[in-house]
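## Example record

The block below lists the input lines for one assembly entry, exactly as stored, with component labels intact.
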Amino acid sequence: MEFIIRHKTIISFISFTLFCLISLTAHTSSTINSIEGLLHLFVVPFQQGYEALQSGVRRFWVGFTELGELRDELQRTRQKLMKYEQIADELTELKKENERLRHQLQMASRLEYESIPARVISRDPDNWYRTIILDRGSADGVKNNMPVVAYSGAEKAVIGKIIDVRSRVSRVIPIIAPEMKLGVMLQSSRYPGLLHGISSNSILCVMDYVSKSALVKFGDQVITSGQGGIFPQGLSVGKVLRSEIMEASAYQRVIVIPTVDYEKLEDVFILKKEPDAEFLELLKSAGN
Amino acid sequence: MIGYIFTGAVIIASLIIQAHDSFDVLKVAGAKPDLLFIAVIFFGYNFGSFYGEVTGFIAGLLHDAVSNAPLGLLTFPKVVIGYVVGMFGRSVFRANLATIFLLVLAASIVKGIITIFLCYIFDSVSVTARAAVIVPESLYNAIIAPFLFMLYEKIFEREIEREGM
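Predicted structure tokens for the full assembly:
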């Protein structure tokens, strides 16, 4: 016992080192996930408390400073609302027409998914891994691999997918993370590619494996391809910044600016879409 | 006992502030300072290896839990740095702006190298995607550290006196 007390520093150092190395080696095991879950549970109340405090202060401050601006803003919003109502009517007509044509061409109907509104309570706790924590969890019906979207104007844009769900919070891996892979395509030319983040400190993405024969222009819209079984087809991802053609490669890589500004993200929607059964089978077999 | 409570409070506050989106305004070159890491260096520097590695371990585990990193990846560098800084601590460096800047800069670079090494072994993502973080984060940590050390020295004034510094 005396030996342990006398050498507690080095014994602790070796124990901590072993714990870290074992945990890193077996990081997908259920025990390690449970430890991580327990630690996360401990932090969540502090995160929610701080978020509530921060939004309270923000609202209080806005109440004092922006009352005049709010009146003008209300007027502008009313005008916009009238315009959008008109667009919505036209859109309903177009949808009906689209459905009718799809039916005539014997194409499957596009599915509309219900969504769960959520707020960002934490973002990027470290500089190495991109993470968003949302204030909705399994109690609200959130499940792993559900797509997360946000609105940029009237456009629905991809933010990422759920990778970890607790009872009251869930964790999202955003499309700008280097470890996130997303099947996308160029909207106009329909050339496919695989999108992922450039680096841990960049807000840009890169679209790999784009055929060299594809003519890629600045500003071209990039959308989800729907392949991969997680994201529905046709969601906005971003716009082309530039393309890089490498002599040694059979493909070109395209640099993409995401539609939604990741740094300003506050409110998102979790689409109640579970992955295709075929995709789940693949995930399970990869796990085994 | 009060010292332990303050230590816990500093770790939790650093974690919450660092992880909250309001802290993103401080980002430079896509990186923000690692407040938890600076706190671990402070504890190792002032209270020795044991205190440094224990706070490094606890802070690292909490950091891993709220991050996408596999459990242990952000913990191990903090344990190592807490231990090493505690070994030298005040016996080698006298606390002033320049030494704190250099100490935190060197510690942050070592932490970055350890993290990259762990990513290389245990993570499938390319190392170059992660390596871009080391320099901006290290510089940022080093610049902000002297001010945080001053604040922590005020909070832990009694404990530092008790340590006989």
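Chain B has one domain: 2-21+32-157. The two ends of chain B are 19 Å apart (CA to CA).
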